[in-house]
Amino acid sequence: MWPRGASLTIAAMNTQTSSSSALPSGQGSTSVLPRIAVLATGGTIAGAAADATNTSGYQAGVVGVDQLLDAVPALSTVARIAPEQIASVDSKDMAMALWTTLAQRINTLLASDDIDGVVVTHGTDTLEETAYLLHLTIKSDKPVVLTAAMRPASALSADGPLNLLNAVTVAAHSRSHGQGVLVAFNNRIHSARDVVKTSTYAVDAFQSPEIGALGWVQDGRVEFQRGVVRAHTLATEFVIGPNWPLVEIVVSYAGVSRSTVDALVAGGVRGIVVAGTGNGSIHASMQQALADAASQGVAVVRSSRVGSGHVMRNGAAPDDALGFISAGSLNPYKSRVLLMLALAAGGTGPVALQKVFDTY
Ligand code: SIN
């Protein structure tokens, strides 16, 4: 089960002397290395192009987990790795059935005494959605760390190998316990709740707007500079299951009509997240359609298309009067994840659903 470095110890690793945070799992110098499952799902980190200078015209998700691990020999000094190929998808095609499979597999692995943490390799495009979904549905305080890459595995200066090493280093570290799901990317450690993709091409593609990263990882050192405040993992009411209520996202913009909202309601949507302008404001035509939807029992959540900041309840729209819910600081994509889970858990009505958004 442990094909890589199964009998290694950390006796010889790490020549740094300044902080115990350089040691994984807080173990002494003769301890057995932590056991970390690496679950591969595809993405650019597993992408390949025809030549090494091509960083945009490649196929995502074609390099297998064994090849990804073989590219990082230093992993054997950090952890014993248990690799699994869960999927091989471009994450633009992430589907809820795969979310169910992934979350259930992680819960099963973490329930075992044989596994100390999990790393998920993923595409960057929907990583923030998967990370938040896992943050709300994993039932363990053991570390779960997502990572990815902006350059394919075949590229000059591919960023995937170091991101993978750093993700395993974070997952193997004792201070990563109880922090919810983490994202290790470009030397930074982000909370799954906060992290968003902010660049289409740069290797520093992930940020936590307004509040910044939780910490950093470099050369085997892991440093957390703040904690995670909102409830997650063991403290949530959400259980991953096969049923996903239909929740869609609409965008408000100059001249938008009500037709998209009306079509969704006619199609049986259970919830609508609106990516509003500014502080979640909504064009009058669309707002009337959403008010009509809410009066028919559709859950309507106001978020913002801006990319940072928060949406104030009863700020840019009279939420109390229209039966809307404010997303607070969650972006539209994460709001959709939370609303699907809340509806699947039986949440109903704007008061109860607002409490969910105020809690998570
Ligand atoms: C993907 O999200 O699977 C492709 C893009 C990427 O990983 O950067």
From TrEMBL:
Its EC number is 3.5.1.1. The keyword Hydrolase applies. Keywords: Hydrolase. Residues 35-227 form the L-asparaginase N-terminal domain. Residues 247-357 form the Asparaginase/glutaminase C-terminal domain. InterPro entries: AsnASE_II, Asp/glu_Ase-like_sf, Asparaginase/glutaminase-like, Asparaginase/glutaminase_AS1, Asparaginase/glutaminase_AS2, Asparaginase_C, L-asparaginase_C, L-asparaginase_N. NCBIfam families: asnASE_II. This is L-asparaginase.
